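Pipeline run #58 for the internal structure catalog. This entry was flagged by the ingest filter as a single-chain record with no existing model, so it goes straight to prediction. Upstream metadata was stripped on purpose; only the residue string is passed forward. Reviewer on rotation: M.T. Logging verbosity set to normal.
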Amino acid sequence: MGLMTWAEEKVKKLTFWDLGALKLALLVLGAIIGAYISVFVKQYVWWFVVVFVVLYLYLILKFFKK
């Protein structure tokens, strides 16, 4: 059993609330990290926006692709 197969089996067992808790935990982690490096983020905010949009579009296209 490979790592990806193991991970897919574990992800399939997650409930709606588990995924919500994961997203909330990552949001809080991002806020904590953002608070410590806010000067860096403000300096390169447009680069972060571009990276976010590219990754978001990639995920959306992958999600809706048949």
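catalog note: The mean pLDDT is 84.
catalog note: Residues 32-66 form one domain.
status: ready for reviewer M.T.
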